[in-house]
Amino acid sequence: MLVDSPPEQRADTAPAPPTRRAIRAFGLLVSVVILVLVALASIAIGAKQLSMGEVWHGLFQDSGTYADVVVSERVSRTVLGLLAGAALGLSGAVLQALTRNPLADPGLLGINAGASAAVVTAITFFGVTSLSGYVWFAFFGAAAVGALVWFLGGSRGATPVRLALAGTAISAALYGYLQAVMITDDAALGRMRFWTVGSLSSATDETIVQVLPFLAFGTVLALALARPLNAMAMGDDTAKALGANLNRTRALSMLAATVLSGAATAACGPIVFVGLMVPHVVRSFTGPDLRWILPYATLLSPVLLLGSDVVGRVVARPAELQVGIVTAVIGGPVFIFLVRRRRTAQL
Predict the structure, then answer these.
(1) What DSSP state is assigned to residue 345?
(2) What is the pLDDT of residues 1-47, one digit of tens each?
(3) CA separation (Å) from 149 to 167, 181, 276?
(4) Distance between CA 257 and CA 97 in Å, rounded?
(5) What is the DSSP letter of 184?
(6) Whole-structure pTM value
(7) Are 119 and 139 in contact (CB under 8 A)?
(8) Alpha helix (H) ranges present in the chain?
């Protein structure tokens, strides 16, 4: 199965030389600049073409014109993309470290499928249509599936192979359930079909305010787990010798991943491959040290999500292509490439 090399982990999690640390720190600054540029592009570029003057006016001199309203909607969309992208990237990086599997992410382990199934159930059978109503269903579904995957994967004796197989099986069953519900419920189909694809188009200030506390909690928790997860990467015995509490670290890691992916899924729908691709790419130039992987994933995952959203707005003008479709199109070939890499694959 896909695992990181322990010798490489022991070498790269040691204190980095000053020059290397400086390069990594400079890379974070570059990532911030890239993120700012992509965020500005997300505000300036859309299915509706606006001049830079109209964009500037909408940002700083909102007078209620059509162009100003469009810019205001793009700002909310961009902010949600920043938050959701960071959440998906962080949750993917945490799960990859927890399972010692560089191809793990909330989608592959069934967490996104659990949140999606719970939200679709809320919409169809309970008539819930607002984020404030179904966000709790999303969290419950994500938590339930995360716990089930962990249990089926062997709990404390979980292995990457078992976790991947359990997540794949549960995801397949839940997505079959989603399709069955949408086919049999015409009234709910219109409300669900865009959400289940994954989109930022329904972003509002209310949505951002409601998911922000959960995303903030999950982000702080995930970043705080960098050192104990680094210790666990060296093996359970070594981690215990270094003073890491294995059960607590595993439980908190699952909690952080569940909160982050559950909130992002509730707000945007299930968006795949972001939590898989970005941490893996980041690891290729930072090494497996999570003290660097997690900050980089926090900055670069929104770059992928917002960049994909901008592409979706441009290629289908005057309509839009949902960001979940774009990330899937990009992520499919990347996933195949990662699977075939000899460095991370053991057959």
Answers:
(1) -
(2) 444 444 444 444 555 566 888 889 999 999 999 999 999 999 999 88
(3) 6, 23, 18
(4) 11
(5) H
(6) 0.85
(7) no
(8) 6-12, 18-44, 52-60, 66-99, 111-125, 131-152, 160-184, 186-197, 205-224, 226-233, 236-241, 246-268, 274-286, 290-315, 323-340
